[in-house]
Amino acid sequence: MSENLPGRRRQLILERVRAAGAAKVADLAAEFGVSDMTVRRDLNQLVKDGELHKVHGGAELQPGSSADEPGFHSKSALQLPEKAAIATAAAKLVEPGMSVSLTSGTTTFALARALRQIPRITVVTNSPRIADLLQDAPAEGQTVLLTGGLRTVSDALVGPLATAAISSLHVDRCFMGVHGFSIEDGLSTPNMMEVEVNRLFLERSNSRVLLADHSKWGTKGLYRIAELDAIDTLITDDALLPADVEALAEHIQDLRLEKA
Fold first, then answer.
1. How do residues 158-210 score in pLDDT, each as one tens digit?
2. pTM
3. Which of 60, 72, 91, 119 has the smallest set of CB atoms within 10 Å of its CB?
4. What is the DSSP pairing of strand 223-226 with strand 186-189?
5. Are 27 and 57 in contact (CB under 8 A)?
6. SS3 sequence, the chain?
């Protein structure tokens, strides 16, 4: 089907915005070879359909939607100091000789950078980015196992190939990043296919560590992965309110607040 047919073009525009978090009219017009006015009509229809939120010069995802799934690039620029502090603390839980799993995500990607300094560890991940990072400059004796699967917008490998690979393994410690976490809905994601993979990562490990900065608190994805009680340790930053820390402490045994 031609990309210039309105319905197909709008679907592609929606995919671009979901991947990047936002898009400009001029960039979309150049990509699809149509006029700015045509793109504006497309965006107006997508806004009317409730898919997008219009901003000056372009459009972005509807704020707060549980089905929003920003791409890796758009998320990687957010909360950088917090992610760095969380990753540094998480790396201290990994010792030579351990096997660990890292789910896909920008905070676990930050952890992977720190793990490059630790020798003789085995890392299982469903993130091609994490696998590439570790393979490019591995410490002595490191082994990296990348699951197969279908690649999502957030660069996670999911589906039957991924679940088969994870089901056959058992690791010492799982490090999980999430779209959001809350008391009511636990750990959540906007992608249905990530649910089973992430549940298996939790099940196939002796210890489960959630890595999530304060911006993830109270955010609810469309699909629940697990209750908060499934997590042994939460490493977050110190921007959480005292009342929130108190509420989390009732569900998670080991709660660590890192200064960004």
1. 999 999 999 999 999 999 999 999 999 999 998 888 999 999 999 999 999 99
2. 0.73
3. 119
4. antiparallel
5. no
6. CCCCCHHHHHHHHHHHHHHHCEEEHHHHHHHHCCCHHHHHHHHHHHHHCCCEEEECCEEEECCCCCCCCCCHHHHHCCCHHHHHHHHHHHHCCCCCCCEEEECCCHHHHHHHHHHCCCCCCEEEECCHHHHHHHHHCCCCCCEEEECCCEECCCCCEECHHHHHHHHCCCEEEEEEECCEEECCCEEEECCHHHHHHHHHHHHCEEEEEEECCHHHECCCCCEEEECHHHCCEEEEECCCCHHHHHHHHCCCCEEEEECC
Structure tokens at 251: 């569900």
**One-letter amino acid identity for 142?**
Q
Which residue in the block uniquely carries the two structure tokens 């020798």?
A: 119
| Tokens standing for residue 138 | 């591995």
Q: What angle do CA 89, 92, 95 make, to 5 degrees?
A: 155
